[in-house]
């Protein structure tokens, strides 16, 4: 059932990842559990958390979250691995310990990479409790459970201190809390909080920075695919009317019918392997 991710040398549930993650999940104790699910507030654009009933079928949330896809994304994983390696080496070169915080660890993949790259300590938090439980089992089966401290909490609830979740602030943050719009999963508030409360001032963050691109295009077919609708509340009262038109400084002739959006991550400050 275990296999090796080529060149990363991490034993993981890869070839049968989907099946394996779910079979682990099936063994998790479900009784009396509080389940949080994410929901997008369409007005503010922010991500909020809903507490669900204990019988809520969270397997659907796990399936939609595409954890297996992330395990299979070799390009992404290699770039995270390389950037982590550089960050940990840099801390050691500067005579410091490499204390890694992995926010939103999911399956634990990035934390396992940090251990394999020689991190001195790894703390991993995961807000989605069923996934955190799953992660504990994955770490045990990969023989690294004693090297990674899993905390089933949202990062913004972590406490640093002798009696807290982490004895001291971390000096490397690794995280992948990005969605298709980059910052739609509440990434900005997560980073902001981490810098203020969980990280040392001279920390290294993987990824280091990001750029969002948007391209206005003329394409009647695309325009039909994704029409913006007026926003109404549950009683169908109009909350926000879709603007008929917007003013821009025009630099080319044509009709603006759709916007393509994409982003890229600068994984580290030195060799800048891009993840697009
Ligand atoms: C895109 S997945 C990444 C999983 C894993 N790190 C990887 O790269 O394969 C993001 C995970 O972060 C969790 N998450 C998002 N924001 C979080 C936060 N502020 N604190 C803890 N977990 C968070 C989500 O529940 C989800 O499991």
UniProtKB/TrEMBL annotation:
Species of the source: Leptidea sinapis
Keywords: Methyltransferase, S-adenosyl-L-methionine, Transferase
Superkingdom assignment: Eukaryota
Keyword set includes Methyltransferase: yes
Protein name: Methyltransferase domain-containing protein
InterPro entries: Arg_MeTrfase (IPR025799), SAM-dependent_MTases_sf (IPR029063)
SUPFAM superfamilies, sorted: S-adenosyl-L-methionine-dependent methyltransferases
PANTHER family the record matches: PROTEIN ARGININE N-METHYLTRANSFERASE (PTHR11006), PROTEIN ARGININE N-METHYLTRANSFERASE 7 (PTHR11006:SF4)
A GO term for molecular function: histone methyltransferase activity
GO biological process, one term: methylation
